[in-house]
């Protein structure tokens, strides 16, 4: 195993993050690096609201829920921890972009993030209503190490089509024509 080499990957449980998690595990195996899956979380309602009305039992519950989300994501992706690589999962309180770039602070680190779907409208809506761009954009702009932005897989697009009620057989027939 490489001395101190790490592959840090942001995990949320989304299809994009599971795709990134698989790629990160492959990269960690190839490099002989430690895989560090990270789930960043913030209190419901945000840090400001929590500071106004702190409730330690609620905070513990939210942290446990975040840890459960990370465990479920690893189960969904690999059926547990991935084989053939040392894994050091982390659940960290804070916004995802700053948490990930703060952890990936060594020159030899590789930070892996899901690139998300492309689309001008979706990005504009996120910036308007969520106060900023995507986590992947944040990481690309602020990371002090190499960042690998993993595009969505074709299977993700198929899953989205199914959720929208699109008949994939019809799409396949159209593509074949």
- The CATH architecture term is 3-Layer(aba) Sandwich
Largest beta-sheet characterization: 5 strands, parallel
Beta-strand content? 15-25%
* Helix fraction by DSSP (H/I, runs of at least 4): 40-55%
What is the count of helical runs? 8
Instruction: Estimate nothing, just give the exact number of structural domains.
Output: 1
- Termini gap: 50 Å
Radius of gyration, in Å, reads 18 Å
Output the helix-strand order: EHEHHEHEHHEHH
Oligomer state equals single chain
CATH homologous superfamily title? HUPs
Q: Note the overall shape.
A: globular
Give the rounded overall mean pLDDT. Answer: 85
What is the total tally of β strands? Answer: 5
**What is the CATH topology?**
Rossmann fold
InterPro entries: Rossmann-like_a/b/a_fold, UspA
Protein name: Universal stress protein
Domain UspA: 6-151
């Amino acid at each position: 195993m490489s001395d101190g080499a790490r592959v840090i990957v942001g995990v949320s449980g989304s299809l994009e993050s599971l795709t990134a998690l698989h790629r990160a595990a492959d990269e960690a195996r190839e490099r002989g690096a430690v895989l560090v899956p990270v789930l960043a979380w913030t209190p419901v309602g945000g840090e400001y609201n929590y500071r106004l009305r702190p409730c330690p039992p609620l905070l513990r519950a939210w942290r446990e829920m975040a840890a459960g989300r990370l465990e479920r994501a690893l189960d969904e992706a690999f059926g547990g921890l991935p084989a053939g690589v040392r894994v050091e999962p982390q659940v960290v309180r804070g916004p995802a972009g700053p948490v990930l770039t703060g952890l990936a602070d060594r020159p030899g680190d590789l930070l892996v993030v899901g690139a998300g779907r492309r689309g001008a409208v979706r990005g504009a809506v996120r910036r308007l209503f969520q106060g900023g761009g995507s986590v992947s954009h944040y990481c690309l702009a602020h990371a002090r190490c190499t960042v690998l932005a993993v595009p969505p897989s074709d299977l993700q697009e198929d899953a989205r089509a199914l959720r929208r009620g699109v008949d994939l057989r019809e799409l396949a027939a159209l593509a074949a024509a």
